[in-house]
Design a protein that fits this description.
This protein is an all-alpha fold. It has eight helices and no strands.
Length: 203
């Protein structure tokens, strides 16, 4: 009823402000209540919904409202991932899963966009975004086998999407050096993850 009667009469600016106010409001309310009662599944769920809606708000600001470009979007998504990483470190594994899922979804949609628009430069940015984001989660959540399995599962899917995107973009009308750098970074990350258990005790 609200959407049908009110939203068509609002400007894009008001829609954006409302969107972020609701997202931030739900997240803040859930985290404050959850912080007071760590056993509350209700407030944990409210916090997770708020964090998810904030993630969607960032995407809508780019895709629907065109407020900022893809580079700014991925900088903001990276900051979002860092924030969720801190929350998951302090509070719950649920936030760890949400953060990893957020990185995976943004890698998938970003790669899809780059392939459709033959934009290798942005694909390189997404590769860097994935590597830095996943390593932050990895080094802050390497305290259990469970967290290692969660991270590795999401990372495998992200690597598949990124590698497929780079394979599709190979041979286009752009600087081949950019493609090689992106591929070397991705291969270096895979090699790092494969070798790390040999030197990191407990994995």
């Amino acid at each position: 009823l609200f959407a049908k009667l009110i939203i068509p009469h609002l400007t894009d600016t008001i829609k954006l402000v409302l969107m972020y106010m609701v997202s931030i409001g739900i997240t803040t309310l859930g985290l404050i209540k959850f912080n007071k009662n760590r056993d509350s599944v209700l407030f944990l769920s409210i916090s997770a919904c708020g964090i998810g809606s904030l993630y969607i708000s960032l995407f809508l600001s780019n895709v629907y409202f065109n407020v900022y470009n893809e580079i700014v979007l991925y900088v903001l998504l990276f900051l979002w991932a860092v924030g969720v990483c801190v929350l998951s470190r302090l509070r719950s594994e649920v936030f760890h899963i949400i953060g990893q899922a957020g990185i995976l979804i943004s890698v998938f949609h970003g790669t899809q966009f780059c392939v459709q628009h033959s934009d290798l430069t942005k694909q390189l940015i997404i590769v860097i975004y994935f590597i830095v984001g996943s390593l932050i989660f990895y080094f802050t959540h390497n305290n259990s086998r469970k967290n290692f399995i969660i991270s590795s599962g999401f990372n495998i899917l992200s690597v598949i999407f990124l590698y497929s995107g780079l394979e599709n973009l190979e041979g286009g009308n752009y600087n081949q050096i950019t493609h090689n750098i992106a591929m070397l970074l991705l291969m270096g990350y895979i090699l790092f993850k494969l070798m790390l258990p040999l030197f990191w005790s407990g994995i």
